[in-house]
Design goal:
Blueprint: H1 2-34, H2 39-62, H3 67-92, E1 95-96, H4 99-120, E2 124-125, H5 127-150, H6 167-199, H7 203-228, H8 232-258, E3 260-261, H9 266-283, E4 288-289, H10 291-310
Helix pairs in contact: 1-2, 1-6, 1-7, 2-3, 2-6, 2-7, 2-8, 3-7, 3-8, 3-9, 3-10, 4-8, 4-9, 5-8, 6-7, 7-8
Length: 311
């Protein structure tokens, strides 16, 4: 009975994370649009930051004592973002991507994935490593906004809504989102740990599956909604940006708090994460991802989950 209650509270916590992420994203998008930021940049910064906050909240709550869950959440979310989110979105409608995204943003995502592997070789992501990741995060964010000023925004990318919310309302939405994220993080982590202990499931597996999928729902919902509305750059930029921020922001903050130990099994998951990132780069080689490719990505992700749960 207690395990059922833990399961229900975990689902409730994930729901709060998703709702909180939605409020934070919606408020942030309206603020960014008032500043005239382009679709790709909104996707890679405001939306990506916002939809990564569930992972951040859950990881901060798990930092220290539950390091395996933190790393599992980051790796699992990055794999889910490509296999589940991009896969499902591509099955709904073909995804087109700008050459600039293909040449720069996707390789950066792969590069940061390789950086995380390099930092883990000694068996831990230390507090110093965490500080380095946070510093790189700040530099990358500044670089993204700087690049946006050098690129002319095409009419199709101009997406300022006819009716924009007043700034105080947008800021209020962001505040509500932060509160919901905090409550959801505590519920999710505490009860997921209880489930793992009751069934003898490694925390890494819980992080890769239950928490990673749950905290990736904001990316799925936001990207699908943006793509269905014709804002492909926001949808795709959200995924690329979220994967980058998962590595730099979530791993960085959690490691800076208490350091993260890296189990040998994590390197297998790292390999899968990089393979999915490279597959995304290859899939965008023609400038678009069709429904068949989306099905392959989704099937590959399902196979990864099954193999993970079978171990």
């Amino acid at each position: 009975m207690e395990t059922l209650l833990n399961g229900a509270l975990t689902v409730a916590g994930i729901a709060l994370l998703c709702v909180g992420g939605h409020f934070l994203v919606e408020g942030g998008i309206h603020v960014a649009r008032r500043l005239g930021v382009s679709g790709l940049v909104i996707g890679m910064t405001v939306v990506a930051y916002g939809t990564s906050t569930p992972e951040l909240a859950a990881s901060v709550a798990a930092a220290g004592e539950h390091g395996d869950m933190v790393l599992g959440n980051v790796i699992g979310s990055n794999i889910a973002n490509v296999g589940m989110v991009i896969g499902v979105a591509a099955m709904l409608t073909a995804l087109a991507v700008s050459r600039r995204t293909l040449r720069r943003e996707v390789p950066i995502m792969v590069g940061f994935s390789a950086l995380l592997v390099g930092l883990s070789v000694d068996g831990a992501v230390s507090r110093l490593d965490g500080a380095v990741l946070i510093a790189i995060l700040c530099a990358f964010t500044v670089y993204t906004f700087w690049q946006s000023r050098r690129v002319r925004v095409e009419p199709a990318e101009e997406h300022a809504p006819a009716k924009t919310r007043p700034f105080p309302i947008s800021a209020g939405m962001m505040g509500v989102g932060v509160g919901l994220l905090y409550a959801g993080a505590i519920l999710t982590v505490d009860n997921a740990v209880a489930i793992a202990e009751s069934f003898g499931i490694p925390e890494r597996i819980i992080g890769i599956t239950v928490i990673a999928i749950g905290t990736s729902l904001p990316e799925l919902i936001t990207s699908v909604m943006a793509i269905r509305k014709g804002q492909t750059d926001i949808g795709v930029g959200n995924i690329i940006g979220s994967n980058i921020y998962n590595i730099l922001m979530i791993t960085g903050v959690a490691a800076a708090i208490a350091g993260i130990s890296v189990a040998p099994a994590a390197f297998t998951d790292y390999t899968i994460m990089i393979l999915f990132s490279v597959a995304l780069f290859a899939a965008f080689g023609s400038g678009r991802i069709g429904r068949k490719t989306g099905m392959l990505l989704t099937a590959g992700y399902a196979a990864y989950l099954l193999s993970t749960l079978a171990t």
